[in-house]
């Protein structure tokens, strides 16, 4: 499997995060009826940030997040998610309870709880595995991960 196949359609480059999330299998939030629209509304409601996410004509959520100049990483791990990033992800997916953080290094599991995968055992991930294959990870147990084919279950 190619590395690019492992990455989801969400990708980030701090301090600006630009992404696209395909809508094909996005279920609505509990009590909602508009899968992506519900998630965008949740993002605006929970973060109190301006509406910077939109549903495009091809059925994707697209947007640009200005991450600001707060480069602190809660875990202290170089290359980790910048301040506020996981909170934003959680606001888009408040219904997801079984999260898999792939090639995670160290992740702030308090903000977005879940299991971790890393090839480096010194980081004490839940699963020691190569993100390109994930052969030791029971992907069917997770309802949110960064593999394109299983982003939603």
What do these coordinates show?
By secondary structure, this protein is of the alpha/beta class. The chain has 3 helices and 6 strands. A 3-stranded antiparallel β-sheet has the order 1-3-2, with helices on one face. A 3-stranded parallel β-sheet has the order 4-5-6, with no helix packed on it. The N terminus and C terminus are likely disordered.
Strand order of the largest sheet: 1-3-2
Oligomer, anyone? single chain
Helix content class: 10-25%
Task: Give the strand tally.
Answer: 6
Question: Which structural category do the helix and sheet elements fall into?
Answer: alpha/beta
User: Which whole number gives the mean pLDDT?
Assistant: 74
Strand content: 15-25%
Enumerate how many helices there are, as a single number: 3
Domains (count): 1
What shape does the CA trace take? globular
Order of helices and strands: HEHEEHEEE
- Main β sheet profile: 3 strands, antiparallel
Distance between the termini: 21 Å
- Unreliable spans: 1-18, 148-153
Radius of gyration: 15 Å
Structure summary:
By secondary structure, the protein is an alpha/beta fold.
Structural features:
153 residues; alpha/beta; three-stranded antiparallel beta sheet; three-stranded parallel beta sheet; 6 strands; disordered N terminus; disordered C terminus
